[in-house]
Design brief:
The chain is mainly alpha-helical. It has helices at 8-15, 28-54, 58-84, 89-118, 125-136, 138-154. It has one domain (28-154). Helix 2 (28-54) runs antiparallel to helix 3, helix 3 packs antiparallel against helix 4 (89-118) and helix 4 (89-118) crosses helix 6 (138-154).
Length: 158
């Protein structure tokens, strides 16, 4: 690291013709946005841990832990980006996409397990639901979870 805060690679680029260093100005709005970002990360961690403690089944506890981990990763990326003087947008977008995919997978596995363990085995109904959930991923899982599961819970057990 050079005395003025530039790394060797940045110093080489600064020596090239036509390349100029960018000035960074701190504004009150920028500080407010930074405070909101930091608060959002802390809120994600606290809510995730609170939901984890109050979770009644493994799906809710897994999703709560995912929220807490996303909050921790979010704060870490924010700190690293500030320390390196970079914008964290790309990393935050990747984090968001990965978190959504993991949450969808947790939901899918929990609905599939619920269907396999609790759906009555009479006729072809269980096989059809399992195939629908497996072959259509989140769409079939959502249809089962919000459509079939409530009706199954209302049926008298045999």
């Amino acid at each position: 690291m050079w005395r003025n805060g530039y790394t060797d690679a940045e110093r080489i680029r600064l020596d090239q013709p036509g390349y100029t260093a960018k000035e960074v100005t701190v504004t009150p709005l920028g500080l407010l946005v930074l405070a909101v970002w930091i608060t959002a990360g802390i809120v994600l961690i606290v809510l995730g841990l609170k939901w984890f403690k109050g979770g009644t089944n493994w799906m809710l506890r897994s999703l709560a832990m995912l929220v807490a981990l996303v909050g921790a990763a979010y704060l870490t990326m924010l700190v690293v980006a500030i320390a390196w003087g970079r914008e964290p947008w790309n990393a935050m977008l990747v984090l968001l996409v990965v978190a959504i995919v993991i949450a969808a997978f947790i939901f899918w596995v929990s609905v599939l397990a619920d269907c396999l363990l609790n759906e009555p085995s009479d006729g072809m109904g269980k096989l059809v639901w399992v195939l629908a959930i497996v072959l259509t991923f989140v769409v079939g899982a959502a249809i089962y979870h919000f459509g079939r599961r409530p009706r199954r819970l209302l049926e008298p057990s045999k």
